[in-house]
Design a protein that fits this description.
Pathway: Phospholipid metabolism; CDP-diacylglycerol biosynthesis; CDP-diacylglycerol from sn-glycerol 3-phosphate: step 3/3; Lipid metabolism. The protein has about 290 residues and is an all-alpha fold. The protein has ten helices and two strands, in the order αααααααββααα. The radius of gyration is 20 Å and the shape is globular.
Length: about 290
């Protein structure tokens, strides 16, 4: 190996050690995902619905794997089959103007997934039944239920704009939390769950989300600035909780990443963690206050 090669290899090794990721690969993956979101929101809403369905289904698979490492056995196939059906069928009805029927499909599919999960578990007997059933219901509530609100946002008036404002607020919060955490982080927020997160980082993230939410909602949806500021703060706070929830699942399961399906990022849940809890909060605030 030449000295130049050694220097380059050493630089890559040091860089990976500092970030914990292969940064060029992570950036490439992030750009590709961002491009998919922007293109589908701008020109092909069905594509975004498909993207949501695939992401949620991948997340369900990863959560099931993680829960199995804790000794629980969620009913994997009823969840994996029901999740994309819920997203795509409800969006098809929303797109056709059948809002009430679409809401019925969401509620009905969630109920059917719970019933199917209990049904397939019964033949295996009573040993561990409550633990397995609870794992199934947790997974259904965690991903299909919370994730369905992305479909609700997309189906509302100016749906693409609502989703965009939500994503901007989440990205701003993550960026602000990272920057403030690196510069000022002193007081750990939840050291037993995620030692790297600090109250200073959370404060910076909430400030960034407030500003980003206020500007995006005003410019994109033409709603009052205070509505966007409220949405940003709520999204930031709930998104931080989502990050902690996913970290708690991984620590309980004894894993670093949910999977390696996204090069440089880990698993689908490692990108959905804050989004999945923040989506219902963003949808509800905008549903109530953006006309």
């Amino acid at each position: 190996m030449t000295s130049t090669d050694s220097t380059a290899a050493g630089g890559r090794s040091a860089h990976s050690h500092r970030t914990g990721r292969n940064l060029p690969v992570a950036i490439t993956t992030g750009v590709v995902l961002g491009a998919i979101v922007i293109v589908t929101l701008a020109w092909w809403h069905w594509g975004f619905a498909l993207f949501i369905a695939v992401a949620l289904t991948a997340g369900c698979w990863e959560v099931c794997n993680a829960l199995e490492r804790t000794g629980a056995h969620p009913a994997r196939w009823p969840i994996l089959i029901g999740t994309p059906i819920l997203v795509l069928a409800s969006y098809a009805l929303f797109a056709a103007g059948e809002r009430e029927r679409a809401m019925g499909v969401i509620i009905g599919m969630l109920a059917l997934m719970v019933i199917a999960a209990l049904l397939v578990r019964v033949p295996r007997g009573t040993d561990g039944f409550v633990k397995d059933a609870a794992a199934s219901v947790f997974t259904i509530g965690y991903l299909p239920l919370l994730g369905s609100t992305c479909t609700l946002m997309l189906a509302d008036d100016h749906g693409a704009g609502r989703v965009l404002c939500f994503l901007i607020a989440v990205i701003a919060c993550d960026t602000g939390a990272f920057a403030f955490g690196v510069m000022f982080g002193r007081h750990k927020m939840a050291p037993k769950v995620s030692p790297a997160k600090s109250w200073e980082g959370l404060t910076g993230g909430l400030l960034a989300a407030l500003v980003a939410g206020a500007l995006s909602v005003r410019l994109v949806l033409h709603a009052p600035v205070w509505v966007g500021a409220l949405m940003g703060v709520v999204v930031g706070a709930v998104g931080a909780l989502g990050d902690l929830v996913e970290s708690a699942i991984k620590r309980d399961a004894g894993i670093k990443d949910m999977s390696h399906v996204l090069p440089g990022h880990g698993g689908a849940m490692d990108r959905l963690d804050s989004l999945i809890l923040a989506a219902p909060a963003a949808w509800f605030v905008m549903y109530l206050l953006v006309v």
